[in-house]
Amino acid sequence: MCPCSSMRRQGRRAFTIVELMVVIGIVAILMSLLLIGLSTVSRQATVTSCLSQLRELFNAHTSYANLYQECFVDVGLPHGGGGDPKRSFVTTLRGFGMDEVALRSPLDRSSHWAPEFGEGVPVSLSGGTPLYRRTSFGMNNYLSRTYSPTMITGAGAPADRLSRVPRPDQVICFLLMTERGNYAGSDHPHVENWGVVSNPAALAATQCQINAIDRRPPSGSSRSNWSFVDGHVATLTFDEVFTSPQENRFNPGL
């Protein structure tokens, strides 16, 4: 037998169990990093898609305002009490390029959508009638001619048109409604109530989905998508849109 051939055979050896475990561990780490990266990219794409829908909603709203002498759309979907769905932007914007499919955000995880959307779990019974979710989005109630705090308290005219909003780039127009509870079937929050409690974020979260992006317990650092009266959209923390009744981006009078 050739001595060289014998030496080559003696020099060969198999992987040890430790070496195999190290290789498998490295592959597992690389796969987990890849999955995290893909998940992050997918999540950001969903956030961007939601922002795009907010722009579409604003464009439809602008078309409405152009037709009605700068008057904003209104709200009317109830949150446990009375309401008038015919007055809601969900209804009035149908002739301006919006429908209920377009009003459902890709970030929305609510199970309260109407049966035609394949969900069928009512939010509540309003007068014996099942109340379902009709939109992911809500409108800042300070801009409503019906549910503005100024109308409720009789303090003055509502900021229901562009000429009554001094700083349109600083005032929120549309937002994401909470996915559960009575407000899940509504199209507007009641921002004027948030500042009367010690933890505004906790109360706001019962009306709006302030953590639509991070999905952590609601807090000042919770992140969601918001649109403004001038048409721009942004992903912001709750602290960036509401600090107190005297400092927030909802009340046009501040």
Helix/sheet category? alpha+beta
Q: What portion of the residues fall into strands of 2 or more residues?
A: 5-15%
Q: Order of SSEs, N→C?
A: HHHEEEHEHEEHEE
Give the strand order, joined by hyphens, for the main sheet: 3-4-5-6
Terminal CA distance: 96 Å
Gyration radius, rounded:
26 Å
Give a count of the beta strands, DSSP E runs of length 2 or more: 8
Figure out the total of helices: 6
Considering DSSP H and I runs of 4 or more, what fraction of the residues is helical? 25-40%
**Backbone shape:** elongated
Q: Tell me about the biggest sheet?
A: 4 strands, antiparallel
Mean pLDDT across every amino acid position: 87
Low-confidence stretches: none
List keywords for this structure.
31% helix, 254 residues, 4-stranded antiparallel sheet, two-stranded antiparallel sheet, single chain, alpha+beta
Describe the structure.
With 254 residues, the protein is α+β, with helices and mostly antiparallel strands. It contains 6 helices and 8 strands. Strand 7 and strand 8 form a beta hairpin. The model has no long low-confidence stretch (mean pLDDT 87).
